[in-house]
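# step 3/5: fold
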Amino acid sequence: MRETSESELSGLDLEAVRDLLESFQVHLRDRILETRKMHHPDEMGEVAAVMAADTIYRIDRISEESVLDWFDANWPPALAAELVMEGLEDSERRIVPLSAAGTSPRLKVIIDPIDGTRGLIHDKRPAWILTGVAIWRGEATMLDGILVAVMTEVPTTRQWRSDQVSALRGGGETGVRAMTHDLVRGGRKPARLRRSESRSFEHGFATFARFLPEGKALLAAFEEEFWRVLSEKVGPFSQVFEDQYISTGGQLYELMAGHDRMVGDLRPLAFRRLGLKGRMVCHPYDICTSLILEEMGGMVVGPDGGPLRPGLNTTEAVSWIGFANPDLAGLALPVIRSLLPDFF
């Protein structure tokens, strides 16, 4: 990770940036929930566009418009930022606020307005609004340069609460702020998030993402071999469960909350091995809040166990593995590394 210099941080109040982003995400969440009340799921799920990075649905388009409107009205010109967002092509360079257009950006803000669109449309599982902020370094701005990360839950109709979690780089676990918003009575209160400290996967949830038909067989074969080899090293596993949550932000939250012990997303590797291009994979905007889990003491790494350093853009495919704690990473990563050449 490239260190952030004192001159780059000069006059930059990261707590104030966090407060701004939390307010922004509450605004966007409420806008999304209002839209849901007015439209049938089939309407919200209509395909609005097929981009280089992903399929964009009608509800995504509504949320993207709300993002641009909010930033133009509320983002300080002194913190002029390049906005990177699902729904905007990388070639569409957008500086916010609009009044700062033509100036050199100081920050780079990466956003996924709705991560987990399909689950939300069908009222199956919550989606998440994800945002990360880094010092602007052009195309050299990387995920590990994110200084502030915020994520807000967009709940199903059966939920009364919406959680919001944020962190500042270097703040550690005490710098993580977790709040529960009461959507019925109003108000908010601290939420208790505690990642798993288990040193075993037994009786817990540990998942390799394989949401789509394409690549499923290869990913399942890798997963089966992973558990076989690991069991030879540490003893047999009789009960390890999986949870195919179609939201990277949701997967990270499950690790933060102690619900999951490991999540691996190797879809880009599988699709490349099979010669499949343009398939739905994780992108930098999906994983932009990994900082929060890391500040809590968890781990988010590449499949080789090295740092995760994609550029902050909308097109790069990201393979990643998240662990609730380093002990679990120590068990799993040597096996994963040993199997990668045979499968991918």
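# step 4/5: annotate
The mean pLDDT is 92.
# step 5/5: archive (pending)
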